[in-house]
Amino acid sequence: MSGVVEPDLSVTVGPLALENPVLTASGTFGYGLEFEPFLKLDELAGFVTKGLSPRPREGNPPPRIVETPAGMLNTIGLQNIGVDAFIRDKLPRLREYDTAVIANVFGETEAEYVEVCSKLDQAEGVAAIELNVSCPNTEQGGMIFGNDAAALHAVTAACRKASRLPLIVKLSPNVTDIRVTARAAVEGGAEVLSLVNTFVGMQVDVERRRPVLKKVCGGLSGPAIRPLAVWMTWQVHEAVDVPLIGMGGISTAADALEFILAGASAVQVGTANFVHPDGSIRVLRELREWLKEHDVATLRELIGAGHSKAPA
Ligand SMILES: Cc1cc2nc3c(=O)[nH]c(=O)nc-3n(C[C@H](O)[C@H](O)[C@H](O)COP(=O)(O)O)c2cc1C
Predict the structure, then answer these.
(1) Long-range contacts of 3-10 (CB under 8 A, 24+ apart)
(2) Is-catalytic flag, 135?
(3) What is the pLDDT of residues 158-172, one digit of tens each?
(4) pTM
(5) Is the beta carbon of 132 within 6 A of some atom in ligand 1?
């Protein structure tokens, strides 16, 4: 029978049951509907929306995106249509698809996070909330929520109370020890952790002798960050008991499997969507082929398997 049976790709990620482990990452997949011409949304286990705030935001002025060796820097500045327009204009169409819609949420204060979470809680068709905590806290002098364990604990706990939806907290990699913030998020009520968001970086235009990005620094993503993100996934897997969703530079099945073996139950594909709009589906199909070629019956047996002390 080996090699003939279709492998079982289904995973459970805390309260979320997914048909397969491949999702797309926030900010790289719009509100899903923009990708209808390029792929079947039903084939994806789910996708994460662009970050939603209480009111629409225009984002930062250009230049706000630049290619880097093996990646890109962006300072889009959390441009979005706002949670009300998302619920009114996007969700009804998204409900036609059999795919998990994960709403990415951010705010500049704890109250703003709570406002967005409570509205999503009342909406029909949201599978889970993912908190983007890589956002400045205007009440705390602009300190990033996700870089401060106490602020992260507080905002997670407040959002936990504001909604019954499964709560994913997306960790910032711009910290000294990611296990500290991972534990704070779990103690605050996160049922799942996703990691990582972008790394802060910059590029200088040598001819102009000025930063390339108008806002000087931006978030680095793409293959350049993958080894850093896999290491963080490995460490967090050993530090907490909740399921993880890994991301950072995934564009092939082998990339996804690195995260899964390090401890992720699912993965998100981000920057690769800018190379091929159906990049996530390519990863999924390759993953299915890889499992067949390696006679692996269920993907679940690979989750965290890299930590095994037994010789491979
Ligand atoms: C253009 C762009 C916009 C992004 N916007 C968001 C966002 O709104 N919320 C969020 O949590 N992450 C955002 N991210 C981060 C990605 O979701 C992801 O964590 C990161 O890019 C690493 O994955 P990748 O290397 O596969 O892109 C954005 C990334 C990019 C490239």
Answers:
(1) 3/292, 3/293, 3/295, 5/297, 6/288, 6/292, 7/288, 7/291, 7/292, 7/296, 7/297, 7/298, 7/299, 8/297, 8/298, 8/299, 8/300, 9/284, 9/287, 9/288, 9/291, 9/299, 10/299, 10/300
(2) yes
(3) 999 999 999 999 999
(4) 0.98
(5) yes
